[in-house]
Amino acid sequence: MRREHFGPPWARGGRAEPPPADDAAAWIAGALPDDWFTVRPDIVIDRDEIVIVGRLTEPVLGEDATDAEKSAAEAGRIASFREATRDRRIGIAQQLEHRYRRKVAWGAACGGRQELFTTFAAPAMTRLRQHERQVLDTLVDAGVARSRSEALAWCVRLVGEHADAWLGQLRDAMGAVDELRRQGPEL
Questions:
Q1: Burial of 14 by CB count in 10 Å (0-12 exposed, 13-18 middle, 19+ buried)?
Q2: What pLDDT, on the 0 to 100 scale, is given for residue 13?
């Protein structure tokens, strides 16, 4: 007996891929107030989240300001921006989440400081062999991480920091493949 399934894919137990976000950066640029950031914000998009980080004007301090004073002023500028723009950022995020079916996180940079506001932590399930689990357990036993999950996240961050150039080239290559697919014949 064959069963027919109706409705959206997520109702059938599978995870539906979110819609393409090719135009998301342009949509965000149009939705943001012109006076929020000094330059176009950095926007990073993956299948789970859109992260928007904008650069704020630096606070005016005297030339004799210490590094600690500069850091405190930058932190104050970011905190002030976060509070003053909260309602508007939430409204923009809700529209983005509806349009692109991804969580939205915000951040701000000022001087040498950058802070991300609420970000999304997506679960990532994997099966590991014993020698791979032992790596995670060693990190836990040494106090580097509190759990296997935290140890795995630590490993991913470490690889990301040390393989950033290679990962960038890989992302560029994947983008080129996506572009070739879009230019290909329609089925």
A1: exposed
A2: 53
